[in-house]
Amino acid sequence: MTKSDRQISERTKSEAKTTAILSGAMKEFLQNGYAGTSMDKVAKSARVSKATVYSHFGDKENLFNAVMQDLVKDKFQQVMSLEKPQSLEQDPQVVLSGMMTKMLANIQNNRSFQDFMRIIIGESGRFPELAKAYVNNVAKPTIEILTKYLKSHPALELADPEATVRVMMGTMVYFVMLQEMLHGKDIVPLEGDRVIKTLTDLITEG
Amino acid sequence: MTKSDRQISERTKSEAKTTAILSGAMKEFLQNGYAGTSMDKVAKSARVSKATVYSHFGDKENLFNAVMQDLVKDKFQQVMSLEKPQSLEQDPQVVLSGMMTKMLANIQNNRSFQDFMRIIIGESGRFPELAKAYVNNVAKPTIEILTKYLKSHPALELADPEATVRVMMGTMVYFVMLQEMLHGKDIVPLEGDRVIKTLTDLITEG
DNA sequence: GTCTATAGATCGATAGAC
DNA sequence: GTCTATCGATCTATAGAC
A121 and B177 in contact by Cβ < 8 A? Predict the structure, then answer.
């Protein structure tokens, strides 16, 4: 083994640790929030020593931001993958209701996405820049894609597509938030399909 | 001063401490969340000793629940006060848009309400019973009042008033959440009036 | 780079004086 | 009932060996 081989091997090992730390920290932060997560827990979850965590990420706040920026980048990719399937479907009513059904299914049984939203909202007071990163890289692209779609269908005769998109997104987000995140499923039960049908009808029969 | 006078005086003092502790704890919990708030901070904020906090509320979790139940009760009263002003207005379009304008104004510049929502959502994973208390005592009554109103106006010809109410509430909540709580005001700017007009038109021109 | 061991501060909670 | 003082655990972060 040459000297440069050893360098590569060690760099690879170090990068593997970085990944393990990010992964362990992600699990802990999503589960317990920023203040509720200790660096000991992170180290244990990543199966490295606490000193290694510090040598890779400096301090707790920096690690938290790294984890969350990774997650934001992840959600950005997911949003962008919604761009292509502008299906050949012509009927906006079918397309809209199909889009929302898909969105709802993707979120409703996705615990880790709900944990992500919980952290973004819960820590938005103490980490405003994190919240802004979410708005810039997740909410804004989603709004733009939906607005672009609504605008490309003048047959809908929407007076204000931008505001209409907010109605759509708000309806979906609030539904998942109330039923799942806030555990309202059994207290104020409601079928997601009813909400989607109502919203679709409101928009297409305006 | 008789013995019973002294008892009254001391009971009054003790009750004043209870109030001070609840008030100080409320400030701290709303600002820093559950894990981010220490009992030392609470004691300092309430200007009592830490031992007094413990003698009144047992432990931290109990104090947190007491504070949040107080807040939930508060919001419940606010929701209920919306019941009466079923104005003499006949035009649902005017009533709806007026109601939502009022709701938005009440929330949009209300930092403490936003902090409250942040905690409810942020802690809903570790305090599911608190989230359920919110749904039972704030979200559900609001939904019921709005549903009752929509149902009392058959002229609106709504196919599904229950689901329509979710669209309304989701739109309002998401708007405030994105613009204010998540600091999106400058990133995805939008006039609240446009959202209200769009929503009102969708519902009344359906 | 990674570990063990530990410093120094702060945590939740309590004992004991008044 | 309320305080000061303190306990033991846990916290963030680092020093020093390998």
Answer: yes
